[in-house]
Amino acid sequence: MEQGRRSGSLLQSMGVKRTVITEGDGQSYPKDGDKVIRGWDEGVKEMSLGELSTLEISSDFGYGDQGIGGVIPGGATLMFEVELLKIGSLTKDWQKSGTCALV
Which UniProt keywords are listed (predicted)? Predict the structure, then answer.
């Protein structure tokens, strides 16, 4: 098992708890990017291609004590169900077709 990856189906990394619903390919992971919130970045980068997970993001990895304009209250814990379908030109179905192109 890679260091820093999950143990079983749950990963808890500071403000992000990731529960794997469906395993991905275990080989292809996204790179850090400019996501909206830190928790999204932390959670998604641990997912592999094709994986379906629930991300539970604490407020310090989300929108903090200030929240966001009456839509998300301050101190809110955020929950997302995320399926990683594509990384660059690599898509979830690449294994089925037998071809792969990494960019």
Answer: Isomerase, Rotamase
